[in-house]
Amino acid sequence: MTLQEQKTVAGEDGGHWLAVRPRLILASGFMLFLELALIRWTGSNIVHLSYFTNFVLLGSFLGIGLGFLRVGRARRQPYYSPVILFGLVFIVLTFPVTVDRNTEGVLYWTSLSTTGPPAWLILPVIFGAAALVLMGPAELVGRCFPELPRLEAYRYDLIGSLSGIALFTALSFLSAPPVFWGLIAAIAYGVLLVPRPRVIYLGLVTVPSLAVVGLLLAETLTAGAFWSPYYKVTYKQFLQLGVPVTDISVNGIPHQQAVPAAARLQWERQYGLPYERASTPPKDVLIVGAGSGTDVAIALSKGAAHVDAVEIDPKLRELGGSLHPDRPYDDPRVTTHVTDGRAFLERTGDKYDLILFALPDSLTLVSGASSLRLESYLFTEEAMRAARAHLKPTGTFSMYNYYRESWLVDRLASTMQNAFGHKPCVDVVSTAGQQAVITAGATPAAQRCAGEWAGAAAGTPPPTGDDRPFLYLKDGDIPSLYLITLGLILAVSLIAVRVVAGPYRRMRPYADLFLLGVAFLLLETKSVTGFALLFGTTWVVNAIVFAGVLVAVLAAVEITRRFRTPPLPVMYAVLFGGLLLAWLVPNTWLLSLPLPLRAVAAVTVAFLPIFAANVVFAKRFSDSADATTSFGANLLGAMVGGCLEYLALVIGYKGLLIVAAVLYLGAFLLLPRKAAVT
After folding, report:
1. Engineering a disulfide at 441: which of 38, 447, 593, 604 sits with its beta carbon 3.0 to 4.6 angstroms away?
2. Which helix (H) or strand (E) holds 248?
């Protein structure tokens, strides 16, 4: 940034009543909080937006990068941000939408009905709005950078980001509805944006911010709607053939029903088949996906002496406890566990007569840091081996669902065959929706099949594994839908950078920082997914991992600020060594360790390359001539990394380490000569 540009920024922000350091912390915390809130809220109201799992995240990265690049080129405060936020909230609440799910190569797990504007219209609106909304707080953060030394500004930026994560995590823990998110956004805009001139401030900040709060309050007060850490949950109660039924939807998707056990067994045969296929009546039962309690009630009606009910969502568990007609969770024979199903299997030492995966639905398809993958690791071959290890000698493992495609039934049956060493029982209860039950005994004698399964049909994809846990992806490539979408995102981003930041040559000196951003996002994705496997795909684990990444980055910055660190070539060598270690250490070995030791080993393996990468970035960033442009280039690189994340569909999560290593090598080769010796 030139001296004149710095004076321009200082001249406008210098009159702010809040000192630069607390203002930087507040702006950075607000930026991350708003990003998380947008990801969470849009995914819950734009039905099936979660199928494009990091769509809003990519828009946020673009906006944050553009906000930094805009510093020095814009004289006015970013009053546009609250106005666009109001427009986004108004559009989403006025035009609830679904995206096109009839797409070759992608299996969608819910209703095929569509509502609202077409996908080609609404998705660009959401992407663009998310970018423009986040560009405002990012610009406010960027305006603080020229007033402080490089690493000190970055330090306070990271402290603010940690504060934003902590606040959003606390609200998730309290199941706070979106009106509280809107209130926090309104307060942050009011504090951070300078009220000059007052008429513009009132019209562009106060009015739209209060309007957002009003819209979110109206949504919050909707009858039968509440928020869990994962979903917007709605329910309605009615009588069906004289039987009380509670119909539960999450994020606008029909999810499950709380129905008396007797009625459910009468209406749908699949619910009783796991007990018919067991060689002996099961007494000790584990149910993964217990939800509102119908499957638990059925197990009790079948004579279970003890049921471990595992449900990832605490609010669904609470709803079942208060509304299920049979009150299964009040039964002393039932113990509930609010956690991830795969994590429970890895931790428990108990043995069971029956382990049941009861309709664990898929609400996401491919992985991204923006969205939880509720069953990504539940249906891999390793998961089924873990289930087998917890069966008694005469125990059985069973799963049922509406699988929608015959190849998916065959894929799961093949996975079970590989894990158990013999053919399972396969009961296709209804070809409409491929309603099926797949059951395998600990031994062939422990299962009672109605007939022998014929085996997987030709063309059935192989079983999934922990490295590529994409059950619903039939072919081993990236579906054309995602390639087209990502290509359009990159094209729009290129145009937006040129319009906002001017000629690309402005960022040319920071090409290595751009590549560092690309590689780091891939490294972060590998860490998040790895911890999800090792410790559970819960919102708590995800929050801890994201916070841990920021703590590792902050530690790297503090060490670089306070101590003399080795030259960049040495730090790159440490980085490549950390990547090699992460490649060599298998997840199977980590999973075999006791939980405390597993945590220590996993943190060491995951955070060594993250720490080294950020020492590299901190050293390089501290010597950059233009703080905001170099930082913006790094953030835009992170957006490109979010696009490259989809390579995991083809090469697996472990393969992302190789891609990251190549990118880091490119960054090293692009180092300016002066930086290479410091």
Report:
1. 447
2. strand 243-250
Could you give the CA distance from residue 360 to residue 311 in angstroms, rounded to a whole number?
9
The span from the CA of 209 to the CA of 197, in Å, is 17
Q: Fold match between 3-223+475-676 and 259-362+381-446?
A: no
- Residue range 3-223+475-676 forms a domain whose CATH class is mainly alpha
Other CB atoms within 10 Å distance of the CB of residue 435? 19
Q: For strand 253-258 and strand 243-250, is the pairing parallel, antiparallel, or unpaired?
A: antiparallel
Task: Note the pLDDT tens digit of each residue in 39-93.
Answer: 989 888 876 576 666 788 899 999 999 999 999 777 788 999 999 999 999 999 9
Using an 8 Å Cβ cutoff, are 185 and 37 in contact? yes
Which amino acid, 319? L
pTM here is 0.90
The CA-atom distances, in angstroms, between 575 and each of 69, 78, 166, 524, 637 are 28, 38, 28, 14, 18
Look up residue 21 and give its two tokens.
């350091």
Q: Residues of 535-568 as b/e, b for ≥16 C-beta within 10 angstroms?
A: bbbbbbbbbbbbebbbbbbbbbbeebbeeebeeb
The pLDDT confidence band at residue 672, using thresholds 50, 70 and 90, is: confident
Are 502 and 628 contacting, i.e. CB atoms less than 8 angstroms apart? no
The backbone region for 357, taken as left when phi is positive above 0, alpha when psi lies in -120 to 50, beta otherwise, is beta
DSSP collapsed to 3 states, 268-332: CHHHCHHHHHECCCCCEEEEECCCCCHHHHHHHHCCCCEEEEECCCHHHHHHHHHHCCCCHHHCC
Helix (H, G, I), strand (E, B) or coil at 650: helix
As a whole number of angstroms, the distance between CA 313 and CA 255 comes to 12
Q: Quickly list DSSP for 410-473.
A: HHHHHHHHHHHSSPPEEEEEETTTTEEEEEEESSGGGB--SS----PPTTPPPPP-SSS--TT-
Among candidates 383, 601, 639, which has minimal Cα distance to 524? Answer: 639
β-bridge mates for residue 430, sequence order: 435
DSSP state of 677: T
The strand pair at 352-358 and 391-402 is best described as: parallel
With a cut of 70, say whether residue 325 has pLDDT above it. yes
Rounded to 10 degrees, the C-alpha dihedral 533/617/24/180 comes to -20
Which tens digit of pLDDT belongs to each residue from 230-263? 888 888 999 998 999 999 888 877 788 899 999 9
pLDDT tens figures, 641-663: 999 998 998 999 999 999 999 99
Show me where the domains of the chain are located. 3-223+475-676, 259-362+381-446
Cα–Cα distance for residue pair 392/396, rounded to 1 Å:
8
pLDDT band at residue 572 under the 50/70/90 scheme:
very high
CB burial of 343-368 (b: ≥16 within 10 Å; e: otherwise) equals: bbbbeeeeebbbbbbbbbbbbbbbbb
- In CATH, what is the architecture of 259-362+381-446? 3-Layer(aba) Sandwich (3.40)
Rounded CA separation 258/291 (Å): 9
